[in-house]
Design a protein that fits this description.
- The protein is an alpha+beta fold.
- It has a single domain, classed as Glutaredoxin (3-Layer(aba) Sandwich), CATH 3.40.30.
- 38% of the residues lie in helices and 19% in strands.
- It is built from 6 helices and 4 strands, in the order αβααβααββα.
- Strands 2-1-3-4 form a 4-stranded mixed beta sheet.
- The longest helix has 10 residues.
- It starts with a helix and ends in a 7-residue tail after the last helix.
- 31% of the residues are buried.
- The model has no long low-confidence stretch (mean pLDDT 94).
Amino acid sequence: MHAALTAAAQGDREVLLDFGANWCPDCRALDQMFQSPQVAPLLKADYLVVPIDVGQFDHNVDLAGRYVDLSTSGIPALVVLQPDGTVRTATDDGSFSDARTMDPSQVSAFLTRWAPGAGL
C-alpha cells in the first residue's frame, strides 16, 4: 500500500483500491470494464489500481475494514485514496456490487468524478 501511495504522489495520480474476489461475477465484470477501451485510458492516466482479494470474506478483511464496510458495500468495492492516504470516496453504498448490470460509461463517470483535481 505504501509503495502505491508513493508512486501515486510521484505521478499525480490517485490510488484505487479494488476489493473483490475471483469467484465473484460482478468483480470479473468490473475487471473486464477496467480493460475496455473506454475505461483503461482513464485508469492509466489517473489511477494506480491495487486489487485486494477478500476471498470468501476471510482474506484482507482487516484492511478492507479500514476503508469500507463490506456488509453494506458488497464486492467489488472501490476506494479512491489521495497519495497522502486520505480517502476521497468509498463505495459503501454497494454501487458496484451489481457491476454485471453496468456499462463502461458508468465506470468512466465514477473514475472521472474522482480523478486527481476533480471536484476540488
